[in-house]
Amino acid sequence: MGDGLEAAARQLEASGRYRVLRRLDLTACLAERDDSPTRLGMFLDIESTGLDPLTCEAIELAIVPFEYRLDGEIVAVHPPFHQLKEPSTPISDEITRITGITNAMVAGHCIDPVAVARFIESAAIVVAHNAAFDRPIAERITPAFIAKPWACTVSDVDWRSEGFEGRRLGELLAAFGLFFDAHRASDDCEAGIALLTQILPRSGRCVLETVLAAARKACWRIFAVEAPYDAREILRQRGYRWNATAEFGPRSWWIDLERMRVEPELQFLEDKIFQRPLDLPMQEITAYDRYSMRTTQTYR
Questions:
Q1: Strand 252-257 vs strand 241-243: parallel, antiparallel, or unpaired?
Q2: 83 to each of 4, 10, 107, 108, 122, how far by Cα in Å?
Q3: Tell me: the pLDDT tens digits for 66-105?
Q4: Among candidate residues 106, 108, 95, 114, the one with its CA nearest the CA of residue 59
């Protein structure tokens, strides 16, 4: 029966009139193990009570370990860590609709920070799809996440230059011909690992290879303190974001750039935005603090 369905799918695709999505089979995405050394990555997903990572509470945490070679090929996936947590206020109907998690499911449950810290102890890197959301919540669960380098399958791949329109996990996998049951944390982790195994259509690189390369690069965070109000649209279009959180840094527009782009950007800010010499606060950012809402308060 399976062979017949696959033959029918291929026939539909060959017609040029149809695109066929196949249910995700993570084992089929893995490379064969050889004698090459491997490292242990952890794909993490958190379901929460809201959309603000600074105020919402985790209601589900899943972490799926995976072994990868230094070339980015994933060769094994290991049993997951999974726990639910009853929040301090009831889960809203909207969050239940999105996540499928009800108040009855989380009643009496909690996430054990000691168990989480023990589970991630051997991780060489933690990966999430939208790490800017997951990492601040994870660090509140246990400070063990602070000591780990993080990477993001949303931001560490230039999806637009690879020909992708959206960056949602389901949309990206659909572009590779796959679908999965979304929004429970464990399912999202497995889908994220499957995404890491895919080959990007234009660069020809494995997604994990690209993500690891981005994670290994330091960048500089520029805070455009006291930028003129009427420059906000120009800054937004250049990729700046507004920060209103004192723990993160100065209340201002900010951007992360590769080192080679820093001097030209400072010149642009002097010439076009501030129209005066500048001495703006900047931080060097690595995978150990990228996507966190913490700041080292070390500016240059």
A1: antiparallel
A2: 39, 40, 12, 12, 19
A3: 999 999 999 999 999 999 999 999 999 999 999 999 999 9
A4: 106
What percent of the chain has a predicted confidence (pLDDT) above 70? 97
d(CA 125, CA 153): 13
Residues 285 and 220: beta-carbon distance below 8 Å: yes
DSSP 175: H
| Tens of pLDDT, residues 26-38 | 999 999 999 999 9
DSSP 206: B
Q: What is the dotted CATH code of the domain comprising 19-216? A: 3.30.420.10
How far separated are the first and last CA of the chain, in Å rounded? Answer: 64
CB atoms within 10 A of CB 41: 23
- Whole-number Cα distances in Å, 224 to 52, 154, 257: 23, 24, 13
The answer to whether 252 and 214 have CB atoms below 8 angstroms apart is: no
Backbone angles phi, psi at 12, to 5 degrees: -60, -45
Alpha carbon distances (Å) from 36 to 66, 68, 71, 75: 15, 10, 10, 10
What are the residue boundaries of the structural domains of the chain, listed by start? 19-216, 219-285
Q: List helix spans (H) across 26-130.
A: 26-29, 93-99, 103-106, 113-120
**pLDDT value for 180:** 93
Q: Which tokens in the block code for residue 75?
A: 């060769």
Contact 220, 256 (CB under 8 A): yes
Which of 166, 211, 169 minimizes the C-alpha distance to 194? 169
